Amino acid sequence: MKYLGMEFMNFRDYNFGAGGSHGFRWVDVRTFTIDDDPSDDRRILAGIIASVEYRDDYVGGGVDPSGTRHGPYWISSISADVFRSVDPTTATAVVEQWLQKCGILPETLQRDLHDSAYRAIKASDSCYELNELGKSAINDYGNIHTEFHELVAIDRSAQKVALIVLSDD
Q1: Whole-angstrom Cα distance, residue 122 to residue 139?
Q2: Which of 36, 81, 118, 134 shows its CA 20 to 30 Å from the CA of 158?
Q3: By 3-state DSSP, what share of the chain in percent is helix, strand and coil, each rounded to 5?
């Protein structure tokens, strides 16, 4: 896997009008190329988990190359087997249900979400959602995140994978 870059949308950076609130939410979309067999989804998931860019606790410090946390979880608790296969419609519903808590979204945020997270999901051949891993998998400050959702969208024709994280602080 080769890391291509990140699109980060901090909802506090958008002007919410009446009927909407940023709710301290954000979306992080990280894109990778597929260097291995593109038909082996579990290997692709394992490649993302093994990447340096996955070592981010999402509490403001960024990627820690020797880190042991990913979001609210200990990395040691995450494997390709803890992701469940979902169709693009279900992946889109995960995003939309999470967004509903913000009320009316600014048009600029809607456009940015369309150009990143939604586009990756729509183009995907396979989507996966990280299952909730239980209390024993939560790291020592993992409860900072009220909600944490993670999707992986695999686009074989473009040889790209998007890691989509939705959360708050």
Answers
A1: 32
A2: 81
A3: 35, 30, 35
Handedness of CA 88, 146, 42, 63 (dihedral sign): positive
* pTM flag (> 0.90): yes
In Å, what is the CA distance from 114 to each residue of 19, 46, 86, 108? 21, 27, 19, 10
Domain layout of the chain by residue ranges = 2-168
Cα separation of 58 and 165, whole Å? Answer: 9
Cα–Cα distance for residue pair 110/107, rounded to 1 Å: 5
Report which of 163, 26, 30, 134 is spatially closest to residue 72, judged by C-alpha positions: 134
Which string of b and e fits 14-37 if b means at least 16 CB within 10 Å? bebeeebebbebbbbbbbbebeee
Distance set, CA 105 to CA 99, 122, 151 (Å): 8, 20, 21
140-169 pLDDT tens trace: 887 777 789 999 999 999 999 999 999 987
Residue type present at position 4: L
Residues whose CB is less than 8 angstroms from the CB of residue 14 and which lie 6 or more positions away in sequence, other chains included: 22, 105, 106, 108, 109
